[in-house]
Amino acid sequence: MPATAHRPREEVPLREPGPAAAAADLVDQELLDWCRRLPKIELHLHLEGAIPLDALWELVRKYGEDAGLGGPAGLAERFRYRDFAHFIDVWVWKNRFLREYDDFTLVAEAVARDLAAQRIRYVEAFFSPGDFAGHGLAVQPLAAAIRAGLDRVADVEVALVADLIRDTGPEVAATTLEAVAEARELGVVGVGLGGSEQSFPPEPFATVYERARALELRTTVHAGEAAGPASIWGALEALRPERIGHGTRAVEDPALVGHLAAVRLPVEACPLSNVATGVVGSLDEHPIRRLRDAGVLVTVNTDDPKMFGNSLAGELALLQARLGFSADEVRGLLLDAVTASWLPEPRKRQLAGAFRRHPAWAAGPSVSSAGRRGRRG
Length: 377
What we know:
Blueprint: H1 19-26, H2 29-37, E1 40-46, H3 53-62, H4 72-78, H5 84-95, H6 101-117, E2 120-127, H7 139-150, E3 157-163, H8 169-181, E4 188-192, H9 206-214, E5 218-223, H10 229-239, E6 243-246, H11 254-263, E7 267-269, H12 271-276, H13 288-293, E8 298-300, H14 305-308, H15 312-323, H16 327-340, H17 345-357, H18 359-363, H19 367-371
Parallel strand pairs: 1-2, 2-3, 3-4, 4-5, 5-6, 6-7, 7-8
Helix pairs in contact: 1-15, 2-15, 3-4, 6-7, 8-9
């Protein structure tokens, strides 16, 4: 899900219970525990959608708008949505509490501590500077504030990816890009294009992406989430990205699936996000199994986890419990994410080796958990 407050979409009711409840109900605890112990990597995470509730609560209190919420549990209740329009309303409401650079340092540290506690070792995380320009926050000091918070946590490495936000148009995106290029020393490694995919096609951003490549920034683009295969084809042909975010609806075009597999273009899949926003009707309908079986290089990600109540361990456990993924396939998904990352090749080899040497890697889930894999409700 692109992290922007500018995303009009078709109103789609969000399913109850949410992803976290589904994980608790449908996954054997020993299987979930194994996924929690595994070292992990994530390539599609929006910083603003990953703020732990206690950190967000601190900001709510700072700005004196805590009346009626009672505490972090009250925030959790706010993150229940009647429909997609309600989700957008809550997103806008949440962003009201990110007003100063210090706020981003606070939440970045909290996000990093949460990631480290989940044994997520490396992350490429989106941040959306355009969403906060209205608060007078400029790109470079915003990135510096985020980096200051991330650097307080040693157990996870987080690279930053600036979302250029398609809703604001290519001219604003081009201006943002130039500012982003000045923040590379702060660990900004690439750019993405989120926003209202169905209303803002990728083609007008071709020169922006050409410029990003000239600046030696890596590139990804959200496509195939709110729009169909034509949006993915348009992104591939006009923007030439190195990865596709979501890519869920690629399965509607077998030729597109074949192309993605042939060129090994990584797809940043976000299964439970797609369930929560109605892109797919249920996890059982999600195409990640079909994409991987067709040879597409797929990674697994959480998108906006604190707004959907999901976790990377829960995603991996549900793939085994609901879609028949084996423990070896889960290991393969994690190693494929290392391959798809924008780390230098020596660092990729180092990270993959550390994963393989981790005690949980070889241990696998218990026999009883593995035996129940692939059940259906």
